[in-house]
């Protein structure tokens, strides 16, 4: 490589280039700055130039239109000409207020100004000229920005402001007006110059001159303001009254004196003297605020307010002192206020309250003072302060020694005060509460916005009492509201106990009396009052609403009190002269109740109503009213009991002299009355009570005896009747008792004898008991017999001792012995309860074994074991259920808390029910059940001959914790299932509906919901080949197919259809509703049936085949049978049954009736008939010599007790014959008219004719059926006696025997309507017979007209002989086993004989 090829050194040139760069950097920066400034100037020039273009001017117009200041003012400009930065003209300018209303429009405004000087010398306007504008109205503007400076902090120069030829609209001042106005202003450092004047017209005037120039020693103020009512200035300012302001003075800057006067409608508004001493200003005078202030502000200032102030104003800073004297307040202040920056600087205020009632009559403050210092900007003010009030009376509640100190802060429009308030004592006038309200503290934060004062977090604390409250107040209206929770602990009530309580209070004060409302909730951890514990128990809790206030009563609303024994809900009012309480509740021992009470000037009034205070005595709906009376109290009571309704009037008298006494004016139980006076003497009660009426007659004597209370009772009963829910009757009876008790001992002897004792379906023929007790020990014996013929008798014997009670029984029923191999022994337990030792009761081949315990503090428990115990024992006392079969199993009962619990496992073998003519098919029933405090579960299986026929399972849950067991079960939630498939008669005949019988196979499936009181059932019912029969009507419907469904409590029979014996059809639908069933209330029924040529009546004496609709409707108490039927075919045999007609229901009075005979059962409510039937000619009537066919059109109305028939029946022509004494009559005319407005007594019109013995005989029956007029006529004419002799005996009257003559005489007398001498009965009496009658002939027995002779032998045996005097003879014998079962036997000359049993029963 050669030298010329070596690389060159480049380091030096690079260093030179770096040095050159460092030297050129400042130059480049200056170049950049210059370029930027030039760009800005250029841009500014371009903007200024652009603003002077049409687009620029339009841009300014748009910006002016879109600008919206805080006042709501808006300006619209049509267009601009000239320079907007120097001198411009604005055309078509419109001004609108905050509501968008056009109030001023100006066609042209000239503006000459220097906007670019604002940053250096303030506002500079050379002139503003408004020409030819129109002012339409006064603008409605929003108040300006509160943060804006009170005085401007920049210089202002306006050389000329000219309003030229401004037209005032007629609507503004009532007339069109044109005004001119000029003004000039120059405000800068060292100079204030304002000069304004104009021609406003109409008496309006505004002239102002203000010239203050210290350097020139000039000071001049002159104001002349006149605003007549309705004028321009009045309309613009909104001041409706005539107003005149005048300010004038004389002097220089160093010394100037002046005065200011303001008048309105000729009255002084303000008057001040003014001074200026080289910049130190003073004023002194008065203001009469009048209507400019209202409410609390007006009360504080009064009619005239004295003001005085003095200070300097430099650079917008006011520094000085201020004093105000009003009627209600006194205020003094000193410090500085920066009006340019809206700020205080250590501005101190002292305020004293002169009017204690300034805040209203319900809020009185005495010795109230406040000292405060204002510092900082107006919107961010801080005010350290101290407040003290010697006494505050809030509607009668006194607060003493109130103090508050802290620092008030302002946040915009809101003042915030941290509260630190102390109170020495609060006096409410309550001796229980006031001692606790001492040395209290209140803390929180108060906020004041305008007149609205609030605090969300106030806390109050006293000994045992704390509260956290919220405050809302309207100071302008003087209204205060406080709300929040209050807590009290260990609050002692003398003689009652202590309580802990929480309350949510709402307190209101102002615009009326103060008021306090509170929602209270609390408990009493300690109860010191024994009476309160007895009534309410332990663990007493309470809650409710309470309100009270000044001039308002104390009111309780929805107040509840709960204890271990009591639940009570109360409302009440406590006023000065009257206190009232209303409430309702429930007591564990006395059940639910309601209460109304009042305390009035004459004393306490109270009314207590208890629904069921003592179920064991049947007490319910018991009302006790107490009211003051002369020398004591009047007590009224009424209610229901086991013995029936009761009502009483008593007086408890406490005279000033003499002992207290109880005067029983009347005390009625059912139909019996108790009266008398009882003196409450020192040794006990003394007096006699009389029992009268209702079958009772006796006395109850009370008298002190042997240091105790003596008792003597002598009571006789004769047909005593107590009309309780279950009636109690006693035919004969007497109770005698005598004894004394006191100091825990009792001596008593008693005898009870009664006969004919009925209680509901239970009837005892005779009852005799005797007992005696001495020093707590005694014995008793009793004998009980059932009603006559019931074959029930029982003897009881026992002993009584303080710790032991025994009972033994022996008897029989229906031929079976009732035994007690193990007698009942009750022994007292250590907890003062009773223990039942194993007790065995035997009946027939079965027995029952019982044992358990009850009472005391231990839970109740018991066990009942049954083995083959016959169910027929239930009928021993007259229940007459007719149940058969035996029951075996075990029942365990216990107690959980206050509620019963238990289990049952039972087996019923051969369950049947025997009725009048039917007995149900035996079925077996296996059942298990379990009862807990909240639910009952049960399961059952029905079986027959080893085959399961049905199942039932049910559960009742959610049972309430209070009430009787049945009521709790009724209110629980029911859930169950029933399934059955088997013989219908096994279930049907258990129902005791004996008018109808159902056989065949029935399928039943049902699901149960709801409750026992309101069951809701869902399921279905089906049956095929069923058979429905009625022994009453002979109805026999076969091959019945039925379908139904359960819905709620209703069984809806969607369809059923069957076949009558004659091949006719019966079909229908309907429902059976089981809701609301109970004692005396059956199911609701609505069945619609259609018959088509169906034989529905088939009896030996009658039958009917009908077509048409039937409807059966029942509300559970009686019902209606309605229909419109066509009788296709009917038959009626007369005389076939000897007792076919019912006897009339005649009201009778039995005398000398044996006392041990049970009274007859009362019949149920009657059913109504509403049936129309038409028979065109198919009614066959025969028997008693009649053989005929009739047509009929009748209406069946009335009731089953009083049926009524309307319409008519007519003989079918040539279809009627009558045979009499072997003579056949042709019925030529027959008509029967029925009148439904009266009991059944049809009017008959019947004529029959025949020929006999060469005579043409006609018989006529006319008149009512109960009083028919029968006449015979013949051709040739014969006397009635001769004619009857020919008909009856086939010969002349001269040929009759003596007996035939007697019968003929009776027949003639009967035809004449009186029965004549009634020779038949006279003959019966004469020969000593009990019965003598004529029996019509019967060809089937080859019997002619016969005579029947009957005779009773004793009370049980009757014999009757029947003979026709020729070849027919018969003998009938009747032996009465009981009043309702008889043995019958008969034999006749034809060789026929029979025996039978007759069962008869009245319904």
Automatic annotation (TrEMBL):
<dbReference type="Pfam" id="PF04357">
    <property type="entry name" value="TamB"/>
</dbReference>
<keyword id="KW-0472">Membrane</keyword>
<feature type="compositionally biased region" description="Acidic residues">
    <location>
        <begin position="1"/>
        <end position="18"/>
    </location>
</feature>
<feature type="domain" description="Translocation and assembly module TamB C-terminal">
    <location>
        <begin position="1060"/>
        <end position="1403"/>
    </location>
</feature>
<protein>
    <recommendedName>
        <fullName>Translocation and assembly module TamB C-terminal domain-containing protein</fullName>
    </recommendedName>
</protein>
<dbReference type="GO" id="GO:0097347">
    <property type="term" value="C:TAM protein secretion complex"/>
</dbReference>
<feature type="region of interest" description="Disordered">
    <location>
        <begin position="1"/>
        <end position="20"/>
    </location>
</feature>
<keyword id="KW-0812">Transmembrane</keyword>
<dbReference type="GO" id="GO:0009306">
    <property type="term" value="P:protein secretion"/>
</dbReference>
<dbReference type="GO" id="GO:0005886">
    <property type="term" value="C:plasma membrane"/>
</dbReference>
<dbReference type="InterPro" id="IPR007452">
    <property type="entry name" value="TamB_C"/>
</dbReference>
<feature type="transmembrane region" description="Helical">
    <location>
        <begin position="29"/>
        <end position="51"/>
    </location>
</feature>
<keyword id="KW-1133">Transmembrane helix</keyword>
């Amino acid at each position: 490589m050669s030298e010329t090829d070596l690389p060159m050194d480049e380091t030096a040139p690079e260093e030179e280039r770096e040095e050159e760069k460092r030297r050129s950097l400042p130059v480049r920066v200056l170049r950049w700055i210059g370029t930027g400034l030039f760009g800005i100037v250029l841009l500014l020039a371009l903007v200024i130039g652009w603003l002077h273009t049409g687009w620029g001017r339009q841009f300014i117009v748009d910006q002016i239109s879109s600008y919206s200041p805080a006042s709501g003012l808006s300006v619209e400009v049509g267009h601009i000409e000239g320079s907007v930065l120097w001198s411009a003209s604005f055309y078509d300018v419109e001004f609108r207020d905050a509501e968008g209303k056009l109030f001023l429009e100006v066609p042209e405004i000239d503006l000459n100004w220097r906007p670019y000087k604002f940053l250096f010398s303030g506002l500079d306007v050379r002139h503003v000229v408004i020409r030819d504008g129109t002012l339409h109205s006064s603008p409605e503007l929003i108040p300006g920005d509160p943060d804006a400076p009170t005085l401007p902090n920049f210089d202002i120069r306006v050389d000329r402001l000219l309003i030229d030829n401004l037209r005032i609209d007629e609507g503004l001042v009532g007339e069109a007006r044109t005004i001119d106005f000029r003004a000039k202003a120059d405000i800068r450092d060292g100079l204030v110059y304002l000069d304004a004047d104009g021609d406003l017209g109409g008496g309006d005037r505004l002239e102002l001159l203000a010239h203050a120039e210290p350097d020139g020693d000039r000071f001049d103020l002159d104001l002349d303001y006149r605003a007549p009512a309705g004028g321009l200035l009045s309309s613009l300012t909104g001041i409706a009254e005539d107003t005149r302001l005048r300010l004038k003075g004389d002097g220089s800057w160093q010394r100037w004196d002046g005065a200011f006067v303001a008048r309105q409608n000729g009255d002084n508004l303000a008057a001040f003297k003014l001074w200026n001493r080289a910049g130190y200003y003073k004023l002194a005078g008065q203001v009469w605020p009048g209507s400019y202030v209202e409410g609390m502000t007006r009360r504080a200032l009064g009619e005239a307010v004295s003001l005085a102030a003095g200070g300097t104003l430099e650079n917008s800073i006011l520094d000085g002192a201020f004093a105000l004297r009003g009627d209600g307040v006194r205020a003094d202040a000193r410090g500085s206020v920066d009006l340019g920056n809206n700020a205080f600087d250590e501005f101190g205020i002292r305020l004293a309250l002169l009017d204690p009632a300034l805040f209203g009559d319900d809020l009185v403050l005495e010795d109230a003072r406040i000292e405060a210092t204002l510092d900082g900007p107006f919107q961010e003010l801080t005010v350290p302060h101290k407040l003290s009030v010697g006494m505050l009376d809030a509607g009668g509640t006194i607060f003493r020694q109130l103090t508050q100190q802290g620092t008030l802060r302002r946040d915009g429009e809101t003042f915030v005060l941290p509260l630190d308030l102390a109170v020495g004592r609060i006096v409410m006038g309550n001796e229980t509460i006031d001692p606790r309200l001492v040395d209290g503290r209140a803390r929180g934060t108060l906020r004041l916005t305008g007149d609205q004062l609030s605090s969300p977090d106030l806390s109050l604390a006293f000994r045992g009492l704390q509260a956290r409250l919220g405050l809302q107040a309207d100071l302008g209206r003087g209204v205060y509201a406080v709300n929040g929770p209050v807590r009290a602990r260990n609050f002692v009530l003398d003689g009652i106990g202590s309580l802990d309580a929480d309350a949510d209070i709402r307190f209101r004060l102002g615009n009326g009396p103060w008021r306090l409302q509170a929602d209270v909730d609390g408990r009493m951890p300690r109860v010191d009052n024994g009476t309160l514990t007895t009534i309410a128990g332990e663990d007493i809790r309470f809650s409710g609403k309470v309100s009270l206030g000044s001039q308002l009563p104390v009111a309780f609303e929805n107040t509840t009190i709960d204890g271990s024994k009591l639940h009570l809900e109360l409302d009440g009012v406590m006023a000065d002269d009257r206190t009232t309480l209303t409430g309702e509740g429930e007591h564990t021992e006395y059940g639910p109740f309601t209460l109304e009470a009042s305390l009035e000037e004459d004393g306490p009034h109270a009314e207590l109503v208890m629904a069921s205070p003592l179920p064991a005595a049947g007490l319910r709906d018991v009302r006790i009213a107490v009211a003051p009376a002369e020398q004591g109290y009047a007590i009224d009571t009424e209610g229901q009991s086991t013995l029936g309704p009761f009502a009483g009037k008593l007086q408890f008298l406490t005279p000033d002299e003499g002992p207290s006494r109880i005067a029983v004016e009347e005390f009625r139980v059912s139909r019996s009355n108790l009266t008398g006076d009882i003196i409450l003497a020192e040794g006990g009660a003394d007096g006699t009570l009389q029992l009268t009426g209702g079958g009772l007659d006796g006395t109850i004597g009370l008298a002190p005896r042997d240091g105790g209370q003596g008792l003597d009772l002598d009571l006789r009963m004769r047909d005593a009747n107590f009309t309780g829910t279950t009636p109690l009757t006693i035919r004969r009876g007497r109770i005698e008792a005598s004894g004394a008790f006191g100091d825990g001992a009792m001596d008593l002897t008693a005898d009870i004898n009664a006969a004919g004792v009925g209680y509901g379906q239970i009837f005892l023929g005779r009852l005799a008991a005797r007992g005696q007790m001495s020093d707590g020990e005694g014995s008793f014996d009793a004998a009980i017999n059932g009603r006559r013929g019931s074959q029930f008798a029982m003897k009881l014997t026992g002993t009584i001792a303080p710790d032991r009670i025994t009972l033994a029984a022996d008897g029989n029923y229906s031929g079976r012995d009732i035994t007690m191999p193990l007698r009942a022994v009750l022994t007292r337990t250590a907890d003062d309860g009773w223990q039942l030792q194993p007790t065995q009761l035997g009946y027939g081949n079965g027995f029952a074994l019982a044992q358990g315990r009850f009472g005391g503090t231990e839970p109740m428990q018991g066990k009942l074991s049954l083995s083959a115990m016959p169910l027929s024992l239930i009928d021993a006392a007259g229940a007459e259920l007719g149940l058969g079969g035996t029951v075996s199993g075990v029942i365990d009962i216990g107690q959980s808390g206050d509620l019963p619990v238990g289990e049952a496992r039972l087996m019923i073998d051969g369950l049947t029910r025997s009725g009048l003519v039917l007995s149900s098919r035996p079925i077996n029933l296996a059942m298990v059940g379990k009862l807990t405090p909240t639910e009952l579960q049960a399961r059952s299986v029905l079986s027959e001959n080893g085959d399961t026929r049905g199942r039932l399972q049910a559960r009742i849950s959610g049972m309430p914790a209070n009430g009787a067991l049945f009521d709790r079960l009724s209110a629980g939630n029911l859930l169950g299932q029933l399934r059955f498939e088997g013989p219908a008669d096994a279930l049907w005949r258990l129902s005791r509906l004996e008018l109808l019988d159902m056989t065949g196979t029935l399928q039943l499936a049902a699901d149960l919901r709801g409750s026992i009181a309101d069951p809701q059932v869902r399921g279905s019912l089906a049956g095929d080949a069923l058979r429905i029969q009625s022994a009453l009507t002979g109805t026999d419907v076969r091959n019945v197919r039925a379908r139904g469904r359960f819905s709620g409590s209703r069984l809806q029979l969607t369809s059923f259809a069957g076949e009558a014996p004659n091949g006719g059809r019966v079909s229908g639908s309907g429902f059976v509703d089981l809701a609301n069933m109970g004692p005396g209330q059956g199911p609701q029924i609505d069945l619609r049936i259609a018959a088509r040529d169906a034989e529905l009546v088939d009896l030996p004496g009658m039958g009917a085949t009908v077509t048409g609709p039937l409807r059966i409707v029942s509300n559970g108490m009686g019902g209606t049978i309605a229909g419109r039927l066509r009788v296709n075919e009917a038959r009626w045999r007369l005389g076939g049954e000897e007792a076919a007609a019912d006897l009339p229901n005649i009201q009778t009075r039995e005398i000398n009736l044996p006392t041990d005979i049970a009274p007859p059962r009362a019949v149920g409510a009657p059913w109504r008939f509403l049936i129309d039937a038409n028979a065109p000619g198919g009614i066959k009537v025969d028997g008693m010599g009649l053989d005929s066919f009739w047509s009929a059109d009748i209406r069946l109305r009335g009731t089953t007790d009083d049926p009524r028939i309307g319409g008519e029946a007519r003989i079918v022509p040539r279809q009627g014959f009558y045979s009499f004494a072997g003579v056949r009559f042709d019925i030529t005319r027959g008509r029967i008219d029925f009148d439904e407005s009266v009991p059944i007594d049809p009017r008959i019109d019947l004529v029959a004719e025949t020929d006999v013995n060469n005579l043409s005989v006609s018989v006529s029956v006319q008149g009512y059926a109960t009083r028919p007029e029968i006449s015979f006529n013949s051709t040739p004419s014969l006397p009635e006696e001769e004619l009857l002799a020919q008909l009856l005996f086939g010969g002349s009257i001269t040929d009759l025997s003596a007996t035939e003559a007697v019968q003929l005489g009776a027949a003639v007398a009967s035809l004449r309507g009186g029965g004549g001498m009634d020779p038949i009965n006279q003959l019966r009496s004469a020969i000593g017979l009990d019965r003598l009658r004529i029996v019509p002939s019967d060809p089937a027995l080859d019997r002619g007209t016969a005579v029947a002779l009957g005779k009773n032998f004793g009370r049980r045996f009757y014999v009757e002989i029947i003979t026709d005097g020729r070849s027919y003879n018969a003998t009938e014998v009747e032996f009465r086993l009981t009043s309702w079962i008889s043995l019958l036997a008969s034999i006749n000359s034809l060789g026929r004989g029979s025996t039978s049993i007759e069962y008869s029963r009245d319904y």
